[in-house]
Amino acid sequence: MSDNELHIMSAFDRDLEALQAHFLKLSGLAERALTDAAKALEALDSPAAERVIADDAALDELEEFIQMEAASLIARRAPTASDLRRVLAVMRGAHSLERVGDYAKNVAKRTRVLPQSAPVDGHAGTIRRMSALVTRMLDEATRALVQKDAQLAEAVRKRDLDIDQMYNTLFRSLFTYMMESPANIGPAMHLHFIAKNIERAGDHATTIAEQALYLATGRMPTDPRPKAGIETEG
After folding, report:
1. Residue 3: pLDDT band with limits 50, 70, 90
2. How many domains does the chain have?
3. 87 to 9, 71, 91, 107, 230: CA distances (angstroms)
4. pTM greater than the 0.85 cutoff
5. Alpha carbon separation from 11 to 16, 69, 83 (Å, rounded)
């Protein structure tokens, strides 16, 4: 291999490392947004919810920057097939993380309109635990993608079942609460849609994990995702 070829490879590797660093930063922003949104819900803290909504702009900007940098990297470096797959995986993963930020923002928007009489006790705790699990899935999925770690990616993929089960349990509890009084229907529906947004964020963490599996093994999973039978699409 010539010195020029080595120089080109080294330049590509540096660019890819920088791109992946931005990708991991984006994951951190998405994780924080979910965590902060769940905390705002549990405390029915409208100012905290407003901050989550406002902070989504930074997440959107970073996702757009990653897409532009990735496209530029492809144009400038003409990566080989395997390297191209890594860049495309980061682009797809960044899109999933941007969607997670949107779901966190949706949670915050619902929190703003929840009355102080909302059935937060117990339900918000379940949502916080769901959010914590999704946050962990996001962290591990993005690291699995950057590190091409098939074992870690598969572990994330399997935990999507836990999110589904928590969502189903919460849905049944909220349905029972709604049946007790018509006055409970509005707040319970808000909490249901909040939980659904967290569940969908978990789906995006699983999507990133599947991209990581593809990078590590050369093939996408062919078996269906583990599912607990979501009872409603909300």
Report:
1. very low
2. 1
3. 14, 9, 6, 31, 33
4. yes
5. 9, 14, 13
